[in-house]
Amino acid sequence: MPRPVQPIGTFGIIRVKKVREHTFYASTRFRDYDGGYIRFSATGGTDGGAQRELKKKLADYTESQNTDGITSRTPLGDVAAIWLQEISAAQQLSPQTFDAYADNLRTVLIPDLGKMRLSELTVGVLDRYFKQLAADHPSRARRGKVVLSQVMALAVRHDAIRTNPVLMTGALKKSRHEVKVVSIDELAHIRRIIAEWRTGEAVMGPKPDGQLAQIFDVILGTGARIGEALALRICDIQFGDTEMGSAATVTISGTIVPRRGLGLVRQDHPKHSKHWRVVTVPSFVVAALKARSAVIDTSDPDGLIFQTRKSTILSPANVRRQWRAIRADRVDLPASIDLGDVTPHVFRKTAADTVDKKIGTRIAADMLGHSSTAVTEQFYVQPVKHVDPATAAALQSLAPAQSAPVLVPRA
């Protein structure tokens, strides 16, 4: 029977012999990474001491063969730095995603785990860490798990560890929230308080330019994200021709994102490049866009529809800030109207929920730019809780053929 081939990167039987008083000689054969064999040996004052010295030599040699310097004893912080360099060179992530990953490492993972060696980041250690983090900061824990899994995958590819421990940690609890949409009554109050904000005679400074109401109408009538609405250009708007029967459309082909060192820029695709889409819009969106077009220079087809007074990019954060200020100023709303949790994203959900209920989830997903209906159903539309009354007629077929006899108890 042929002798089994020794796996690459392993050593065989360690043989120890006493060469003189208090001196032991240990040796073994190591199969190198090129397929050949190397004889390693070491001495020690005892049998066990000689074996320990030999194993230390083997470990040092194994780690020296790793050209990237990643071993089981490498601190996580060093591996994370190598990973960031790798994904930066690959240029497969959007700049904002790369920045988000780097921020999570810098502010969460490295301060908490950066000094630990790869071999110390076991499944149990990481499982407890992420569950503790998720108790107070669920979003940080979820993103941290995604980032750390990729860092540890790099360590696996470099043979520093055998398996990725992050993949074997338990699932994090997902927060469940009711999908918030605005009612017709709430929408009427929202439009009223926006129109009335800072219009009094005693108000100092420039009056609002009306963009906020127009932006909200565009989001309501297209299902666009706030960054996508603010990224609309002159060339993205087609008002159509009522006489020719052509409808007005809006092309959602970009979004506003922050870039380090550059500030706000218009990204030439939506959140995901495949989410580019053309949406036919209702008349109230046409009215909002025409009103905006009447007060801006439309000679440049790449000019933005929504912009600051200095003709620069309008920040999504500033839009949200203005809406929060309007909400805070109004104390005259009916007790039944609570706008505290109404954000611009709620208008996107309202658009999706309306289309879902009137036309169907698949069309709502297409409008939102979702590749499948799963995300739409989970986060953007309210579940139907009133079952169609037609079920009563359908289930009538299960009725008994005749009334059951009435049993009279004996006296």
Q: What can you see in these coordinates?
A:
The chain is mainly α and 411 residues long. Helix content is 43%, strand content 10%. The chain contains 14 helices and eight strands. The strands form three sheets. The protein has a three-stranded antiparallel sheet with strand order 1-2-3, with helices on one face. A three-stranded antiparallel sheet has the order 4-5-8, with no helix packed on it. A two-stranded antiparallel sheet has the order 6-7. α2 crosses α5 (138-157) and α4 packs antiparallel against α5. It is elongated, with a radius of gyration of 33 Å. The protein starts with 14 loop residues before the first strand and ends in a 16-residue tail after the last helix. The model has no long low-confidence stretch (mean pLDDT 89).
